[in-house]
Amino acid sequence: MKKRLFTPGPTPIPESVMLAMAEPIIHHRNPEFVEILTSVNENLKYLFQTKNPVLTLTSSGTGAMEASVANLLSPGDKAIFVNLGKFGERWGQIMKAYGVEPVEVKIEWGTAPTAELILQTLKNNPTTKAVFLTHSETSTGVFTDIKSIAAAVHEKYDIAVVVDGITSVGAHEMRFDEWGLDVIVTGSQKGLMIPPGLAFAAVSERAQKMMETSKLPKYYFSFKKALKSHADNDTPYTPAITLVIGLEKGLRMIREETVEHVWQHHKMLSEAVRNGCKAIGLELFGSPASHAVTAVNVPQGVEYSKFNKILKQKYGITTAGGQDHLKGKIFRVSHLGYYDEVDIVGAVAALEWTLHDLNFKFEPGSGVTAVQKTFAEYAAKTADESTASRQGREKAEALK
Ligand SMILES: *Cc1c(COP(=O)(O)O)cnc(C)c1O
């Protein structure tokens, strides 16, 4: 049986990336590796749409989240975070671990915060040093409009906007400089199409200034040390050489396709999955929807554990379940990274077969038809896409 991952990390890895990582190891101080790191640093700037440095850390995504707190803040500082799901909640847990005073904005899981809500919280907590957001909340499949929130915050306050972009970078439009973000982090096993083990953080000038006065403890994850090495296309410690070699290939693929097209592709795939699920008669969980992962309510009369077992064991498809109080209530289908139209048709077909096996009543083929219809509609707009791609390429040139 062919096994297929439809999980929001790890995500599938392109063959060319796997082959590059299978080559004999090289030394990280050799010119050959410096060249690779130079290309990686350039292409990360393109992916993040920034002229600021994008640091590569050796850890999973959470390491970059932790480093963002530790490098910007000082003991007793106040910082806002939004508890909109498992990952938003994590910002607060990291703050507590570091002795930062968290201001929790708790909203119903499956919803997203508005700029008004953040502004109101800032008004009540005027000494706040930073706002921590989650661009794509993977646990609920919900998207947050960080562009509007960052603009609203910076209009009134000279504070940092720090974003968990772990499943949004490479899936959603994200323009770090234009949107005035201060830090955005991601991880390698999500939109970047390589195995777990690397984390990334783009850092603005404001963030770099905050690092100068930050008094929280840090050593291995010191942004200042990482920035110093970054300027020479070097790393302070031994990097995960093999992963960086794979990353170089993955980033090249994104650059050749153009980041605008990659965003558009994720939008299309997510729309197709949503339309497919709705046509089967399934109810989507949460909104607005992330383009990286679709959360779906487990339908009445269907037991999640049975559903998951059939999908996995009979059809080879691994999806993700719900976390905490959403356990058994939702399932999540990821379309982040290396997926194409055929993958999505297959995933929705397997969903149909599984639901059919469980005697769920629906019109067989309705989901797959809705998926294909969505793709056909996008194909009809190809002329627009090629314009978007060209503009993307021009913007990429300008960023060089
Ligand atoms: C996966 C994920 C994380 C955690 O990343 P790790 O690589 O597992 O440390 C954090 N935030 C979001 C939104 C994620 O999807």
How does this structure look, described?
Helix 12 (341-357) runs antiparallel to helix 13 (366-380). The protein has two domains: 12-257, 3-Layer(aba) Sandwich (Aspartate Aminotransferase, domain 2), CATH 3.40.640.10; 259-389, Alpha-Beta Complex (Aspartate Aminotransferase, domain 1), CATH 3.90.1150. The strands form four sheets. It has a seven-stranded mixed β-sheet, with helices on both faces. Strands 11-14-13 form a three-stranded antiparallel β-sheet, with helices on one face. It has helices at 15-21, 31-48, 61-72, 86-98, 115-124, 146-156, 205-213, 223-230, 241-257, 259-280, 304-313, 341-357, 366-380, 382-399, and strands at 4-5, 54-58, 78-83, 101-106, 130-134, 136-137, 142-143, 160-164, 183-187, 198-203, 293-297, 317-318, 320-321, 330-334. It starts with a strand and ends with a helix. By secondary structure, it is an alpha/beta fold. The site of pyridoxal-5'-phosphate has 12 residues, from helix 3.
Bound molecules: pyridoxal-5'-phosphate
The CATH superfamily of the largest domain is Type I PLP-dependent aspartate aminotransferase-like (Major domain)
Structural class by SSE content: alpha/beta
How many strands, which pairing sense, and closed or not: the largest β-sheet? 7 strands, mixed
Helix fraction by DSSP (H/I, runs of at least 4): 40-55%
Structural shape: globular
Order of helices and strands: EHHEHEHEHEEEHEEEHHHHEHEEEHHH
End-to-end distance, in Å? 45 Å
CATH architecture of the largest domain: 3-Layer(aba) Sandwich
